[in-house]
Give the backbone structure.
Amino acid sequence: MVELEKSYFFHSSERGIFVEIYFPKRAAYYAAIFNALRFGYDENKVKKYLRDSASELIKEFKVFPDLFNPHRYTQEPSRDLPTIDEVLQRIDMYKSPFYGWSVSSVDGVFFNKKGNLIEE
């Protein structure tokens, strides 16, 4: 009798990242969302986008100064904003964890502070 070896896509020693993100359910946003998902798979395109936006990212994430620190895991956390060179170093370290997506439709009704109905 021949015993077949079973293989699985995921093993208990492999790590996976599963994230749930809610996007606005509006037709005007569909193309931008789809393109972000489609091109987000390409690590080089993501790095180029991040490099081109480095100075804006420093400003946008100034409350998280350690986010773009290339020494984040080897030194004590810093509250100082990283330099452009440090941000570029950190971007070069990026390895994409993105290998696909699925889409589920979620409908809901929300109320603003005045109690007015907001459908999404």
The chain has one domain: 27-119. The mean pLDDT is 83. Residues 27-119 form one domain. The first strand starts at residue 109 and ends at 111.
